[in-house]
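Morning run. Coffee first, then this:
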Amino acid sequence: MTNDDQLADWCATYARHGGKGEHVMEGINSRLDGLQAAILNVKLPHLAAWTEARRAVAAQYDQRLKGVGDLRLPGIGPDRDHVYHLYVIRTERRDALKKHLGDAGIATVLNYPKALPFYPAYAYLGHKPQDFPVAYAHQSRILSLPIYPELSDEMLGYVTEAIKGFFAGDGQTS
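And here it is:
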């Protein structure tokens, strides 16, 4: 508790991993309070089923979006599993696709709008794009599609058809 607004803002930024989106400082991720922990404890027994449901949704995305436009779909290495906390695609036309999907009522997210080395919190390190060329290039290409265990086949179809429509020419805005 504080009556100092500047201190309250600093504490909130610090507790949210340095700030949402810009990460102006190194912070901590301490947004879990006791009540949230109790709720998560009740949810824990469902985790395996929810993970399998996310994998099923991801498999449908993989099947329905394979070969569409310039999309790069998430890959899984040999002898690995993926929990699909996010389903992140890559495209050279990320911003136009995001707008197209948003106009269709489909929420997408730029979970990582910048690669970690390029946030203000790490400016003191003096990194340049050529230090991390792949991360730098992908930061403007990645887009997270909706994924959660209860995503229905109908909703998934709506999302994938909107994406296909975009690449077929229906969403050629730049």
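The first strand starts at residue 87 and ends at 90. Good start to the day.
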